[in-house]
## 1
Amino acid sequence: MSSNTLSIALNNLDRNEEAFQAAEEAVQILSPLFLHSPTSFGSWMGTCIRNYNLVADAAGREPNAKLLQPLMEALPAEEVVSKAYQSSTPTVPDTP
């Protein structure tokens, strides 16, 4: 989760490209764990994906669709919807 937290800090400093890279790294690092155990890591992954999309927008970049597709398919629909309608400020998920 430190890459996700770093992306938030960088985003707050308007260092958008660096924030984008850190957010993408957070999603990449958490992906294998999430895909192995979606129930355990779903909340974290939902938050990381949401932040990744937010900082991608701030950086004027497109999120990596190839990276996100299997994650979005495994993420429970309610998690996708709830994260999509929360505030547009990047967040850090609660620790389990």
Note: The chain has one domain: 2-84.
## 2
Amino acid sequence: MTSPFVAGQKIHASDLNIFIAGAASSGDVTCTTTTLTDLTGATVTFSTTHANVICTVTGIFDVSLNTAAAAATGHLSVDGSDQTTQAILTMTTATQRATIAQCWTIALAAAGSHTLKLRGALSASAGSYTFFHPHTTINALVCDL
């Protein structure tokens, strides 16, 4: 990434636009298939003034096994495009529950409005997992420089 600043340049507070956008899920979501499902409320929308903005996004997934299942997977969607890295959880006994995390570093190519959302699914269509609210959360550190 190219620095937006040059050697010897005085940097003012107004040159720095670093902020955190966060949200918690607002309802439990049960996944029973490999189809990615939005985790209700675990979405942040914000605007950037520069191109190639770097964000560090942390997704926290509070998950419980309902019935014998494949792995539960937690995903990040960036402006409608799902990222390849996933949070993955495999359990063997019904009612087991865990909080898992995944961290993504992303670049937002264009200036403007951006939407980041957490999604859930199963790795195979077997059994079911529930993603619980309000402990499933998303937090993005946005460096709009």
Note: The chain has no helices and eleven strands.
## 3
Amino acid sequence: MSPWSEGVEVAVKILRPGTRPLVVLDLFILRGAAQKFFDAFARKNLGCPATLLVDEFAEKLLEAGPAGCCSPHYRVPLNSRDEGSKCVG
């Protein structure tokens, strides 16, 4: 969390063009590893398969943003364009 100029704490999501396919591949690998190495542990201790945890994590990680967000806690400050830049470096 990061303090906003209005004094409100906000989460910052950095968008990096062209990285989505790499993130999806990493999630696919993570899901396979979770199934192979942690499934029995998760079922015994958490009552659900490890793949379900990875799937939930992936869903949140790949959320679309303001248009796809249904949370009442999601807020884009009015001056958000003034606070950032288009430079990704």
Note: The longest strand covers residues 2-3.
## 4
Amino acid sequence: MAGGDDNLRSCALLLRAAPDRPSVNLVLSGLEKAFAGRAASSFPKELTAAVSHALADDTSGQHLALGVRVGHPGAVASALAVVSDEKANKGPSPRIHSNVRRGAAAERRARVAQGVA
């Protein structure tokens, strides 16, 4: 993905325009593939809000890594539970583990900036 805030805002518009859950999943999957292997970066609030809204209906956890990447609180909490689950049959995906660390760090920086931590 070329990146840039204008392109990322266009992704948010595309996601919001998706007419049904299968279409939403298709856009979310495309975003995951576009961001795969790239360092997490900051996202425009429009994309973060669109992904968060889309994840509100995602009961399967299919797009957990993307949710963590954009800092969706529910996704971060779910991913932390997955990462810390010692009873899991296999270790967490390195992609999710990497994003959880970044997401948790971003969450901590936000609390410090707000004077909460």
Note: The mean pLDDT is 76.
